[in-house]
Structures are given as structure tokens and as C-alpha cells.
């Protein structure tokens, strides 16, 4: 009798949002929950990052805030809660969405719920050029790299996925993105 358990485990597929970040720059963002334990001073802090939905937000509904990081676009009132909007491409060292070719009246935003042991849910919106599709990818086919990142953009990858012979897509690490946002 042949066991199919091991081959089934190696075929575990996960869903990823295919994001268009800037001209010619496409990356995958996991849709699964990411749990993380961080240390701040001597205190441990547990964080969960959960991408939940994609929204279209009118640019005139975003309130810009002074003295913030350049990649923080402002705050948005989402059902009575404050959601901080972050230009994901700019955070990663790409051209800011405000300087890309098309004029923006709406922002395509991936909403991420962030919860920790000490606070209720916080909302962060990752603003991207557009969401192309949902990809299903075999987790064992993600190629990780042990090489030192060459650019700011490379620092946010967990690996690469070879979709086909002519298309290799970087897979973003939501934990590293969350760490950059909250370490600011």
C-alpha cells in the first residue's frame, strides 16, 4: 500500500493576493494569518496580522497627518475606527503611488487587522496600485533565498514563486512589513 499522506502534505496550497505595486513590479501577499512574538524592552508582545479584505477608498476621505513617515498616507475612518493608510510600494523603496503615472481619486487598499495581547484590533491599510488576482501556490514551491538583500525592496520577501517558466513572483513577508510599520 502506498502512503499518500506525505505527498498530500507537500502539496499544501495557500492563497496569495497578486499586487501591482508600481510600474512593472508585481508581488504576492499571503492571505493567511501571521502570528508574531516581538520583544520591546524587557516585555514580550504577541501580534497577529490578518489580511481581511480589499477596499477602494476615495482619496478625499483620507486625512493626512503631519510629522509621520513619508510612506504613511494618512488616516481613514472605517466604520468608526481609525485605519492608517500606508503606501506599501513606497515603504519598500519603490516610487510613491502619488508619483505614478495615473491620477488617483481612489486608493486600492488591502486592510490588515492587527491585534496584540495589550490592545484591541488596530487597522492598517496597505495601499497598492491594484490587486490583480488571487493566486493559489504550493507552499513547498516557494524558493527562499539566504542571500543578503540587495535593495530596500528585497528586505520584505520571504521568497519567490515560479508561476511559469517566464514569470517569477516575489512573495512578501507580512511579518517584516508589520515590523517596519510598528518600529517607526
UniProtKB/TrEMBL annotation:
<dbReference type="InterPro" id="IPR002545">
    <property type="entry name" value="CheW-lke_dom"/>
</dbReference>
<feature type="domain" description="CheW-like">
    <location>
        <begin position="13"/>
        <end position="183"/>
    </location>
</feature>
<dbReference type="GO" id="GO:0006935">
    <property type="term" value="P:chemotaxis"/>
</dbReference>
<protein>
    <submittedName>
        <fullName>Putative Chemotaxis protein CheW</fullName>
    </submittedName>
</protein>
<dbReference type="InterPro" id="IPR036061">
    <property type="entry name" value="CheW-like_dom_sf"/>
</dbReference>
<dbReference type="Pfam" id="PF01584">
    <property type="entry name" value="CheW"/>
</dbReference>
<dbReference type="GO" id="GO:0007165">
    <property type="term" value="P:signal transduction"/>
</dbReference>
Amino acid at each position: 500500500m502506498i502512503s499518500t499522506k506525505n505527498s498530500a502534505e507537500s502539496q499544501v496550497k495557500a492563497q496569495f493576493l497578486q499586487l501591482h505595486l508600481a510600474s512593472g513590479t508585481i508581488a504576492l501577499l499571503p492571505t493567511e494569518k501571521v502570528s508574531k512574538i516581538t520583544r520591546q524592552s524587557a516585555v514580550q508582545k504577541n501580534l497577529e496580522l490578518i489580511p481581511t479584505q480589499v477596499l477602494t477608498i476615495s482619496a478625499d476621505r483620507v486625512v493626512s497627518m503631519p510629522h509621520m513617515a513619508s510612506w504613511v498616507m494618512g488616516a481613514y475612518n472605517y466604520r468608526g475606527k481609525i485605519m492608517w493608510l500606508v503606501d506599501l510600494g513606497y515603504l519598500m523603496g519603490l516610487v510613491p503611488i502619488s508619483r505614478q503615472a495615473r491620477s488617483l481619486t481612489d486608493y486600492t487598499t488591502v486592510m490588515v487587522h492587527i491585534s496584540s495581547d495589550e490592545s484591541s484590533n488596530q487597522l492598517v491599510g496597505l495601499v497598492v496600485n491594484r490587486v490583480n488576482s488571487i493566486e493559489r501556490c504550493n507552499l513547498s514551491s516557494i524558493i527562499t533565498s539566504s542571500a543578503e538583500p540587495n535593495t530596500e525592496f528585497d528586505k520584505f520577501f520571504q521568497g519567490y514563486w515560479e508561476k511559469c517558466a517566464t514569470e517569477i513572483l516575489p512573495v512578501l513577508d507580512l511579518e517584516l512589513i508589520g515590523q517596519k510599520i510598528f518600529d517607526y
